[in-house]
Amino acid sequence: MPALDPKFKDIIATGVIAASGVAIPGLFVPALDMAGVGATWTVMIGAIADKAGLELTPAATAKLVAAGVTAVSGYVLGSKILTWAATPLILAFPVAGVPAAIAVNATLNGLFTLRLGLACASRFSRPDFDTSDVIDLALGIGGFLIKVPTSAELSLVREILA
Questions:
Q1: Cα–Cα distance between 100 and 61 in angstroms, integer?
Q2: How many Å is the Cα radius of gyration of the chain?
Q3: Cβ–Cβ contacts within 10 Å for residue 5, how many?
Q4: What is the mean pLDDT of each run of 10 residues along the chain (162 residues)?
Q5: Rounded to an integer, what distance in angstroms lies between the CA atom of residue 57 and that of residue 136?
Q6: Is the separation of the CB atoms in 152 and 1 below 8 Å?
Q7: Is the separation of the CB atoms in 119 and 1 below 8 Å?
Q8: Kindly report the CA angle at 152 between 146 and 154, in degrees rounded to 5?
Q9: Cα separation of 68 and 42, whole Å?
């Protein structure tokens, strides 16, 4: 996992917090979850580009966000189906079940946002990066967003949310 560059720390942390916050209502309304995460990613990517001194068009930002949302949608849909399948268990033990489901959803939203923020900060900071590289970044988004989380990533998400 790339280190969290202090130059981008506040931007990425704000994105992680916002995306994780969307997880609470998003658990019950999945479309709200993806729309909220997409909006968060749009703002975060734009802020990272500005901080890196990169002029990223709204169309380029939209391509990155769309690629990211598409990449995680299957994963998120699978976790929602599992959550819904576990609804009888959650209802039987609501004191533990509902907070656990919210925690998982918030962690996933935060993790995906962290990964996207780190990748954008790393690439946008390269002196040779220009808007033509956006397509390559968009095509590779699935490879770094959807993978087993490392303990370092989970610790960083937890640290940001604390």
A1: 33
A2: 16
A3: 17
A4: 83 96 82 87 94 90 88 66 59 66 84 93 91 84 82 92 90
A5: 16
A6: yes
A7: no
A8: 60
A9: 10
Phi, psi of 140 (to 5 degrees): -95, 0
Residues 52/54/3/61 CA torsion (nearest 10 deg): 130
Residue type, 53: G
| Statement: the pTM of the whole predicted model exceeds 0.90 | no
SS3 readout for the chain: CCCCCHHHHHHHHHHHHHHHHHHHHHHHCHHHHHHHHHHHHHHHHHHHHHHHCCCCCHHHHHHHHHHHHHHHHHHHHHHHHHHHHCHHHHHHCHHHHHHHHHHHHHHHHHHHHHHHHHHHHHHHCCCCCCHHHHHHHHHHHHHHHCCCCCHHHHHHHHHHHC
What pLDDT, on a 0 to 100 scale, did the predictor assign at position 11?
97
Angle 93-99-101 from CA coordinates, rounded to 5°: 90
**Which tokens hold the place of 114?**
């962290």
